[in-house]
Amino acid sequence: MKAVRLVTAGEPLVLEDVAQPKPGDDEVLVKVAGCGVCHTDIGFWKDGVPTKKGLPLTLGHEVSGTVVQAGSRYKQLLDREVIVPAVIPCGECELCRAGERRICRAQIMPGNDRHGGFASHVAVPARFRHHKPVTKGQPQRPTFLCHSQVRGCKWRLHHGMHLKAIR
Predict the structure, then answer these.
(1) What pLDDT, on the 0 to 100 scale, is given for residue 155?
(2) pLDDT of residue 8
(3) DSSP 83-143
(4) How confident is the model at residue 102, as a pLDDT?
(5) CATH number of domain containing 95
(6) How many domains is the chain partitioned into structurally?
(7) What is the extent of the structural domain holding 99?
(8) Any idea which of 47-51, 100-104, 126-130, 161-165 has the lowest mean pLDDT?
(9) What does the pLDDT read at residue 109?
(10) How far apart are CA 124 and CA 65, in angstroms?
(11) b or e along 93-105 (b: 16 or more beta carbons within 10 Å of the residue's beta carbon)?
């Protein structure tokens, strides 16, 4: 598959052919319809802010698309349009059980902790994904949400640039 990757901070992003990920039992593979570019991505890229997963890394955490493969526990999600949360909480820790998922200490961020959505496909944990309303016959439009922990806000619409899916 094709992916736009950060190889060296401060240098241009690189279009590469990479292996398509295979989802684990608790994951889904999303065919990316669109992925927003957030200030966080720009910080990793232009300013050299360290990522948790080393380079090269596929950035992008504002992902929407269609589930094309699913782990054994999530087969019901096949062919569903989804919005991947920008930050995915563990769902099991004390904070998550108390309803404070936005400050989970074990959260996963695509494009930082693992490869993200600047690619044709992305594998992500299936928990806490959001289904988009299904409208038959309508073309899929990318939806961009940016997770914000500022002032306790859980979601904020992100009006930024976007990368189209790479075919």
Answers:
(1) 30
(2) 97
(3) EE-SSB--SSSHHHHTT-GGG-TT-B-BTTTB--SSBSEEEEE-TT-EEPPP-TTSPP---
(4) 87
(5) 3.90.180.10
(6) 1
(7) 2-135+144-164
(8) 161-165
(9) 95
(10) 12
(11) bebbeeeebbebe
